[in-house]
From TrEMBL:
Descriptive protein name: Glycosyltransferase
GO molecular function: transferase activity
Keywords tagged on the record: Transferase
Amino acid sequence: MKWGTLYGAEYVNVLYSAVRANLTGDFRFVCLTDDSSGLRSEIETFPIPDIGLKPENWRHGAWPKIALFGHDLYGLTGRALFIDLDTVICGQLGEFFTLGSGLMALDSTPWRGKDGPPSTGTGIFAFDLGSLGYLVDRLRAERDAITEKYDIEQAYVHGEVSPIGYWPQAWIVSYKYHLRPPLLIDRLRGPNPPGPEVRVLCFHGRPRPIDLIRPPAGNWDVFPHYGRGPVPWMVDYWTRHGGRV
């Protein structure tokens, strides 16, 4: 999904190329967007369905993602894999479609070094199209109460869907929790590349992938963390999949 101006067409095109390189056989790559200009011809585009959100719901909490769960999403059928635009594809994706059933998502609880129940993240998830339409129905009927109770869309999904299955931890890592160097060390060296077992690298908030590729002047990380200059392995990924430096 792409709305607003934070992530441009280049993000979609790079993601398509990376998916194509890591998924065998035929697939449909669909982008729901308010602006389809600049997208590759292989990418199918549809408008983001209107599910009755207020303007502030578009700016906070990624609530438009819930539109994916509609009873009928432009006639699309089958197993779907949703991937956030600020995601780096590092390895094969086929098993993301075949492992488990129902809603499969990432569990971010271990990322924070915590034990406890899973915490559902929606940076990447798989589901059967049309099977969770009640999420849209409830949001339409109780929008203000639900957005106040859950604040962000992934908390709503976590609280209202059962059961949820989770990907193996080795498949998905976070830039912030797994690759960012420790404080002070980050003044001396850049972030580590993902290991060979990693299939998906997630970014969330700042820095964004483009900050490691076309960095702004000075520190591109969030103080007291520090990052400076382009990161070679991210530049290689971006250019290999058609992005510009």
